[in-house]
Design goal:
By secondary structure, the protein is an alpha+beta fold. The chain has eight helices and 17 strands.
Length: 379
């Protein structure tokens, strides 16, 4: 029996392998030490044997409510992911495995590897409407890459809207980049009429992975410096949050008419939006756009709903270090955070897979219809 996390986005520490019915593990905290919840490791064992893996520090994790009704994901081939029986009690997360093959990978959610990220960029750049742009360097010397889809420059074409979509400010929220993959391939599908109409009216700027350092390091929430990027937007720096610094610089050059920040939520078993209602300059115009976007997204995807979500900020009380609030205020634009679950989606449950990469990708495609519904009224 062996357990390793010595690979891209791996995270686990072994306490004891003495008893296969009581394997004791712990999650390694992010840089900065404040956050941890993401785990990703490989178990090698005997076919037919029964294993119980106990994450001993689960009770100290960042979002303990995230363990309620949660089931870990696993894969034998790292392509098809399914859920494992998982329980949380007395501060311990217990995952049970009946081995069907020699090796199984177990994670908090289906990983989206840095290699797959590179494959996505390489594939997308082959399309005539797509261009890749190097925005800057991360603290671990990785590229921060922008994908632009469109045939014009919004700064010089007054008729073109600028739609900005970012994902994985929090690197452990891998469903966000799965959504981007589905959205990108749908946007570039020559047979997708929704995408064609949207691109006639807008240029789309996409950062598929805002936090490549945290992604490779196996972090839940922070970059290499221990910064939570979604609390850096009011005052980013090259020393602490170069990822946000470089993206804002590019936003200033293109303008922003619609902003879509894609995330995952540990606790709530739903897909939902969090808007900018608490920003100081939030207006009836933006409220109307948000209502329209929400209603169309509900029609486009039965996975999305608007009954459950975060408590709405009172007017003028928004945290302006958060991307959605800062962008909405700075550019006077429609800005939303999209949240997807780590658990199952109680709106349309699936006991075998829970929320999954495939459902995330489909939601990316559905998001295009909501964007098309509001694009004409963004200015």
């Amino acid at each position: 029996m062996r357990i390793t996390a010595n690979f891209d986005a791996g995270n686990i520490e072994v306490i004891s392998l003495e008893n296969k019915q009581d394997i004791q593990l712990s999650i390694r905290p992010d840089a900065g030490g404040e956050f941890f919840q993401w785990f990703n490791f490989r178990l090698s064992g005997e076919i037919g044997d029964h294993y119980v893996l106990n994450i001993m520090n689960a009770g100290e994790a960042s979002y303990v409510k995230g363990w309620e009704n949660y089931q870990a994901v696993a894969s034998y081939d790292r392509e098809d992911w399914f859920r494992l029986p998982t329980t949380y009690k007395d501060g311990k997360l217990s995952i049970t495995v009946d081995m069907a093959y020699d090796n199984i990978q177990i994670a908090y959610f289906a990983p989206y590897s840095y290699e797959r990220h590179q494959d996505l960029l390489a594939t997308v750049q082959m399309h005539p409407l797509a261009t890749l742009e190097y925005l800057g360097e991360t603290l671990d010397k990785r590229d921060l890459t922008l994908v632009k889809i469109g045939n014009g420059d919004s700064s010089s074409d007054v008729n073109k809207r600028s739609i900005w979509i970012i994902a994985r400010q929090h690197p452990g929220e891998t469903m966000a980049e799965w959504l981007i993959e589905g959205l990108l391939y749908s946007l570039l599908d020559e047979n997708n009429a929704t995408a064609k109409q949207l691109l006639e009216k807008a240029n789309v700027y996409i950062v598929p992975n805002m936090n490549p350092d945290g992604s490779v390091r196996g972090h839940l929430r922070t970059n290499a410096a221990g910064a939570n990027l979604n609390r850096e937007w009011s005052n980013p720096s090259l020393e602490r949050s170069p990822e946000v610094f470089h993206v804002i610089n590019k936003m200033e050059a293109t303008g922003v008419d619609l902003f879509y920040d894609v995330h995952g939520d540990e606790a709530l078993p739903y897909v939902f939006l969090a808007g900018s209602q608490g920003a100081p300059s939030y207006s009836e115009r933006l409220a109307h756009l948000r209502d329209r976007f929400t209603e169309v997204l509900k029609l486009a995807s039965a996975d999305f709903q608007s009954e459950y979500g975060y408590e709405i900020d009172a007017p003028g009380t928004a945290n302006m270090t958060v991307a959605t609030n800062w962008v909405a205020e700075h550019f006077d634009c429609l800005a939303n955070t999209l949240e997807m679950p780590f658990k199952d989606n109680d709106n349309v449950p699936d006991a075998d897979t829970g929320w999954s990469p495939e459902r995330s990708m489909k939601l990316g495609e559905a998001s295009l219809l909501a964007m098309l519904a509001v694009v004409d009224d963004l200015r």
